[in-house]
User: Fold this.
Amino acid sequence: MSRLNENYLKLPGSYLFAEIADRVASFKNEKPDADVISLGIGDVTKPLVPAVVEAIHKAADEMGQEDTFRGYGPYQGYDFLAEKIIKHDFNRYGIELSTDEIFISDGRAKKRLREFSGNIRAGQCCCRIRSGISCLC
Assistant:
């Protein structure tokens, strides 16, 4: 017999994005003359550029073949990716690095990033490149 997982009853009644949209709509309704600049959830405005679509297709094709399949990556990321990051994001500014100076994470392993950033010494920088760039120096 199936039973309800009681933990689902502890979840809030509204999804976060729906809650934000409701609050913004309520505010605009209460203050119709207010000039609201939304920095919230938004939506994409343009399709993926062809280079991104091509890269996604290529990566999916690689994962579908025995000889090019990759499972979980190494602890500090793949060397081929670190080499590309060094070449395109550092070398062009005259910064020379080796692959062991680059830490690649999917962003979900926060403990690994904390461990890594805890090893940064004065005068060193740690850059995290995503949609924006943040540095610990």
